[in-house]
Amino acid sequence: MDSCIFCKIIDGTIPAKKVYEDDDLVAIEDLNPVAPHHVLLIPRKHIVNALDLTPEDDGLVGRVFRAAAAIARERGVEERGFRIVQNSNPDAGQSVFHIHFHLLAGRHFGWPPG
Ligand code: 5GP
Ligand code: ZN
What we know:
CATH topology: HIT family, subunit A
Helix content: 10-25%
Strand order of the largest sheet: 1-2-3-5-4
Strand content: 15-25%
Largest sheet: 5 strands, antiparallel
Order of helices and strands: HEEEHEE
Radius of gyration: 14 Å
Bound molecules: guanosine-5'-monophosphate, zinc ion
CATH class: Alpha Beta
CATH architecture: 2-Layer Sandwich
Number of domains: 1
Shape: globular
């Protein structure tokens, strides 16, 4: 999608610090990290948010979660813990309308979220 920041990161038009990629997704460092570890896992397919997922994306979501867990393990934060967050629409704070999953780790996160 021409006007989408994350499509541009995926096609290389906008630079980003990639930490992982495969046929289905790209993982990058967040530009404005809110935790010591803040990685965005972005499916290559332009899906708007959770409301836009179809049955054909079921496997993709599983792969995103397994990639996030692998990155958490690689970084040695798996025992302390980590959070995987997907914001859909304004009340949740979604600001980029190409689905992405935040992997957050390296500090304590409150519950319920703010
Ligand atoms: P959302 O608020 O939609 O859940 O998350 C969007 C995230 O994308 C934010 O954490 C924001 O810092 C990050 N972000 C926005 N634009 C860019 C960019 O151009 N590069 C990178 N690496 N992250 C971005
Ligand atoms: Zn996009």
